[in-house]
Amino acid sequence: MAEETLRTDEIIEEHRGAVKEYAPSTPIEGVEILRLERHVDDRGLFLEIFRRRATHPGSDVLAAFFQDVPVAQMNYSVVDSDSTVKGLHYHLKQSDVWFCPPDSKMKIVLWDLRKASSTSGATQVIVSGGGRDLWLKIPPGVAHGYRALSRPCALLYIVTREFDLDDPDEYRIPWDHPAIRHLWEIENG
Asked: What's the pTM value of the predicted model, to 2 decimals?
């Protein structure tokens, strides 16, 4: 039996959709993602999340990721309400380095606001947690926020500059700004 094929014009016009895209999103200049190795056995899991220097084969990647990160402050935040969006904000003087610990899960939205960047105006969406263990470096000028996909949803993050009440270096953008409001949605289909 021959397989039947159709042309687009043979589909009812009001139901003709666009071809779904599977290409990965283009990363924003300066944003770095480091996938972590999860060690799982019958007792649970072990996840190495920080290393100042490499001491054995395989530890060099994690140590290199933090080589140029001056750790000024480490913070831990928990959201305990459904579908909360935290952010959107950016910094001029500091970088953020984010980690979504097990068993949390979040959808991170990034928006490059830097005029001179090769990806100026670009957006990037990253899902972190839920078994996708990673560190995410966010440079100054890249707006960032997240939508909680688990309850509770935790975030462990490092900043490269201590918070200063007299110079907070935190600039807000509405989470539902028209240029990015659609990025918070959960895709269906």
From this structure: 0.86
